[in-house]
Specification:
The protein is 32% helix and 24% strand. It has 266 residues and is an alpha/beta fold. The protein has a single domain, classed as TIM Barrel (Alpha-Beta Barrel). Strands 1, 2, 3, 4, 7, 8, 9, 10, 11, 12 and 13 form an eleven-stranded mixed beta sheet that branches. Strands 5-6 form a two-stranded antiparallel sheet. Helix 3 links the parallel strand 8 and strand 9. The chain is globular, with a radius of gyration of 17 Å. It binds iron/sulfur cluster. Iron/sulfur cluster binds next to loops.
């Protein structure tokens, strides 16, 4: 795999790599110290708000290809952390992801993972790995909302129970490494009914919610909520005793990465 192109915005650097069989995958350097890397060519989960899975799933990246995204960029930028949150569902390529994670940890890097919890066996492996943080991307609690969000029909109940089984015995300090990812989409998952379910779940298990503003992509039928609505949802969760974090500055940049990374083939 080789580095093919680099784009730069005010906040982020986007890298395009070409694999030996002619696919292009991407990674993003953001926050001045973190590289968000891809784990698959395309994605089997196919979240309808995300460009990465819009063309379907082609193949897993090997651990070499995952590690190379870092090795090719570390020569030019100061990487302190790896976010396994680019193109692909890491739990669906768990073996290669875990091998790469060990490599990154040996280099002294902080490694975080973002996952939808599919498939369950891979999710379990990721939860138990030597990570520095897992974001469980939920985005919706009722089946009515989840059907709108995910093309893949996977058991949310199973993912939730795998997650709870893992975090319940953990001490308060260790549980801080786990959080819920919730992407606010206008008129889809921003109702009081959905937010109440999110608040109840997060408060019950003392989990932080990363409340995200949407960076719209052409392939998506969804729109972001207004700044005012975002503020309202944020306050609603806080009022229900939930710790909420924001990650919007880098996400909504034109090269923000989250949900905007795409694949191509020569
Ligand atoms: S958000 Fe993640 S899991 Fe969903 S389609 Fe995009 S890459 Fe796949």
């Amino acid at each position: 795999m080789k580095l093919k192109k680099k784009y730069q915005s005010r906040l982020n650097n986007l890298f395009v790599y070409e694999t030996k069989d002619g696919y292009h995958v991407e990674s993003v350097f953001y926050r001045g110290n973190t590289l968000c890397i891809s784990t698959q060519v395309g994605c089997p989960v196919g979240c309808r708000f995300c460009a990465s899975g819009s063309k379907g799933f082609f193949r897993n990246l090997s651990s070499e290809e995952i590690k190379l995204q870092f090795s090719l960029v570390e020569k030019i930028l100061p990487i302190k952390g790896i976010a396994i949150a680019g193109i692909g569902e890491p739990a669906a390529n768990a073996e290669a992801v875990l091998e790469s994670l060990t490599f990154f940890k040996e280099k002294g890097l902080k490694v975080t993972i973002t996952t939808t919890g599919f498939p369950h066996a891979g999710f379990k492996q990721l939860l138990s790995s030597e990570h520095d943080g897992v974001t469980f991307s939920i985005h919706g609690f009722t089946s009515e909302v989840r059907k709108k969000l995910f093309k893949l029909d996977f058991s949310f109940q199973k993912a939730i129970s795998t997650f709870i089984t893992h975090i319940e015995p953990l001490s308060r300090t260790k549980r801080k490494k786990y959080q819920i990812g919730y992407l606010l989409l206008k008129d889809v998952n921003d109702s009081e009914k959905e937010l109440k379910k999110l608040a109840e779940f997060a408060a019950k298990y003392r989990l932080t919610v990363m409340l995200m503003m949407y960076n719209p992509v052409e392939t998506s039928p969804f729109e972001p909520v207004s700044g005012e609505k975002y503020e309202k949802c944020f306050k609603f969760l806080r009022k229900h005793g939930v710790r909420v974090t924001l990650s919007n500055r880098f996400r909504t940049d034109p090269l923000g990465g989250c949900g905007t990374l795409t694949i191509a083939r020569n």
